[in-house]
Give the backbone structure.
Amino acid sequence: MTDAIDTLADSQTAAVAPTAAPPVRPFYWSVRRELWEHHSLYIAPLIAGGVVFFGYLIGLTGLPMRARAVTEMNGTVHAAVLDQPYNIAAIAIMVTAFIVAIFYCLGALHNERRDRSILFWKSLPVSDLTTVAAKAAIPLVVLPAIAFAAIFAVQLCMLLLGTGALAAHGMDATALWAKEASPQGWWVLLWGLATLSVWFAPLYAWLILVSGWARKAPFLWAVLAPLGLSLAERITLGTSHLSSLLGSRLTGGFSQAFAQGGDPLNGLPRPDPAAFVSAPAVWIGVIVAAAFLAAAVWLRRRREPV
Amino acid sequence: MACIEARGLRKTFGSTVALAGVDLNVEEGRILGLIGPNGAGKSTALGAILGLIPYHGDLKVLGRDPWTARDTLMRDVCFIADVAVLPRWMRVSQALDYVAGVHPRFDRVKAERFLARTAIKHSSRVRELSKGMVTQLHLALIMAIDAKLLVLDEPTLGLDILYRKQFYDSLLNDYFDSGRTIVVTTHQVEEVQHILTDLAFIDRGRIVLSSTMEDLESRYAELMVGPDRVVEARTLGPIHERQVFGRSILLFDGVGRDRLSPLGEVRTPSIADLFVAVIGDSGPQTTRAAA
């Protein structure tokens, strides 16, 4: 999408000024400016990783003892004790990135109207489509990439330190490296982040749309509108289709992306691309997200500073 | 080629009529002052010209429809709304990077050269700059863009007199040339009077006066007359009259200076006086009197 939009802009530039037009990359710079404005996008996941890493440092003294216990018992239940900090790091960073994404989306089209800077952005040759696409790319692409890099870095530091701690006690560290640091482990993480991003796309798009629509308190509108509709359905029809739909959207991402049961060899979740790509719920979500974003583009063209 | 062509431009917000059929023609290379009281429709007209709001009627800016082609139009149009629109979190260097990254006609060297003459540091954030410096920064960005039309909506609002003077001096000396067009709205009419080539008064959504400055000078004349000859002067049909230090100042539309000069001192009215005469008396006061 990045290339498509930039190529489109470039070709238009070429048509207007065929000679020596400097290359402009509206989409790229629109994403850059989001990162300038919102430091929390990369600082928050790093802090979360740092906190978990600090906890790991404290717990490092007990590692050789736990490793010895696992070696003696040779059981999967005990192996989980070794994994725990790695999983905690990954989950902490992913949850942080998710929260950051939600708050980012709620301000995406609202802050620029509140501080009137929308008049400056609109005085430049950047289309509303490019702007909304850049803002949507933050939770959909940029934050998952940041989360992956942060998890990768923190887990690698943990592994190196853990290996050192074991070696100091004359122990073999292959048990540590076998699972998390394997290519399969990174693939599971990458697949999980990518599918979660696709699965949550309608949620992010909804928040961006509300942030472009609400004159005040986008958070309240974003939460109370679906809540109110669910309640109204419950009262008038006595059913709860909407609330179960919303609930499955919030919680169902993992079961769409991974096969039931872990890998029999090492207990890692098993990515199931075929099931994910053929799941109607995934595609419905993508279509709904695209519709919400199209509405957000439409709104940004018309909305004035609040 | 006409830079701006508006025919029957209309815009309503609910039951409020902001533009009630504006006809406006601005040729290339002109500096137009769009002057009007609060709520006259100035900002709405500029919003339509800049593609910020939808409208009814015909409007072409540089041959394009601003509403459907805002992003391409903005390659040739620059816009300063007022001092508050630069994002406060942005650093000066980031503003330069961003505009250079998205605008094909931005000359970074030129912007840097302009900034070097100010006290603005590249590492500063907009929120750390004074109001005057923010305007200087915005002007530096705008003047480094090779645009055909520059729209200024109250550009010097809230600035002290030194910054205001410097703002218009820079605009005239470093920016304006025959290939460019400038449209400016301001309440400080006396400051722009000497730089304008064209003048339009807008009131209650309509253009009530549109003229070049040369035509204005030959059409309107102000006569300062003592009490002894004021009755005689009134027979010539002034459109406005006011008293200053016991003498009367009468404003005439289309009365030859040769007929006025025997009665007293004749001069060209200021835009502010003309504004009061044309809008002040035909405007809200009349409505109130009639009601």
Remarks:
- Residues 283-291 of chain B have pLDDT under 50 and may be disordered.
- Chain B touches chain A at residues 50-54, 70-75, 77-81, 84-91, 94, 97-106 (CB under 8 Å).
